[in-house]
Amino acid sequence: MPRKQHRSAQRARAIQRQVGGKYTVLLRHTTLVMTADAPSAARGGTATKSPARDLARALRAAGAVGAAAELEAALAWGAEGDRLGLAVEEADRQQWAAYDSGLSRAHRARWEAAANEAVDVLMNFMDGDYYRQDRAELHAAAHAMALVAGGRAEPDLARKAARVIAQFQDNAESTADAIRGDRPVLLPPLDGPDTTAARAARAAAAALQEAAAIPWRGDEEWTACAELLAKTFRLVRSAAVFWGTGAAPLLQIRLGRLRPAPGGDALGRTTIGWRPGMTETHAWETGRGLWRLDAQRALARDEVQIIAPSQGVLAVARITGITRHGDRYALEGRLLSGDARVGKPTTTPHPSRNPIAYL
User: Fold this and answer.
1) What are the phi and psi torsion angles at 329 (to 5°)?
2) Cβ–Cβ contacts within 10 Å for residue 37, how many?
3) Distance CA 288, CA 227 (A)
4) Looking at residue 76, what is its pLDDT?
5) Which residue, 216, 214, 212, 191, is CA-closest to 202?
6) How would you classify the pairing of strands 356-358 and 303-307?
């Protein structure tokens, strides 16, 4: 998948395109990382944000019931595919364990057959459409942008769509495979108010619609689609301020004094706390954990801001999940390197002595 979390089937297909090989073999050796149904942080696992689910709820609230239902169906399909992918991994693990344990040839053959069957079940379920969920998310984002462009929804819907699109922005080439298909993007009319938010949403919706219409014919069309998507991603990033991203809920973490990390630190750190000259990466690794915090309130925030005791911004990251470690939590996210707020006093001063603030 063109996001941070790649699906096993799509990774296998990407490897196959690059170096060749048998797909079923490649599939067994790809790693499945899934966001939709990650174990709850309350049970000691990792809870992950799902911008697509947020968008589906927002589309339904905006009256776009059909678009919401189509997205929800694709998300359910993706979750089932990932469950089957995990079964492939487990069958593969059992197969290799049988080989390593010195079991008889008959026993090894049974485990090998089970692994092959798991792959067949997954492949039959996918039915060659490895990008269904990705395509549905992009189509839904375009639909949301069209509603804002036509004045039929508030700009906040475009903000939620932009969060979905942001998951794809690191790999326009793979997204060019995902968005194209035998189904065009059918959008509501794009005519509407001449506000900055509507114009930006109109441009984003039209660009996604154009990208989806590029046919599957060869490398030239694939490259053209990837280039168009790269421009679209830049447009969405630059237009985010018009859709209210700057007013999005914020988690703020204020670092304390520099001190040794507790023994056996779950994040592998030797020191924690603030020191002069910290890099953004160091500030993020120091500030993202380990904290006693409200997991649900943290996941409801789009971004986390790491600040110094003097209220200067050290790092900004987009929150993607949260992991439990005993009675404390660590944030998972994507560091926004070079964010304009870094190095400046925060515009939202920390309101209490508690290092965690939900703004």
Assistant:
1) -130, 155
2) 16
3) 34
4) 92
5) 191
6) unpaired
The residue to which tokens 């508690």 are assigned: 354
pLDDT given for residue 109 in this prediction = 82
Closest-CA residue to 142 (of 76, 190, 174)? 190
Query: What does the block give as tokens for 8?
Result: 């096993």
Which residues, including other chains, have CB under 8 Å from residue 252's CB and lie 6 or more apart? 304, 305, 307, 346, 348, 350, 356, 357, 359
Query: What would the mean pLDDT of 121-150 be, rounded to a whole number?
Result: 91
The mean pLDDT of 17-39, rounded to a whole number, is 42
Q: Is residue 44 within 8 Å of 329, Cβ to Cβ? A: no
pLDDT tens per residue, range 260-270: 998 889 999 99
How many Cα neighbours within 13 Å face the side chain of 202? Answer: 15
Residue 77 CB: number of other CB atoms within 10 A? 16
Instruction: Spell out the residues 6+ positions from residue 324 whose beta carbon is closer than 8 angstroms to its own.
Output: 41, 42, 43, 44, 45, 46, 295
Could you give the CA distance from residue 144 to residue 188 in angstroms, rounded to a whole number?
A: 9
Q: Averaged over 175-181, what is the pLDDT?
A: 86
- With 0-12 / 13-18 / 19 or more C-beta atoms within 10 angstroms meaning exposed / middle / buried, residue 353 is exposed
Which residues have CB under 8 Å from 89's CB, separation 6+?
A: 8, 28, 31, 32
**Amino acid, single-letter form, for residue 358:** Y
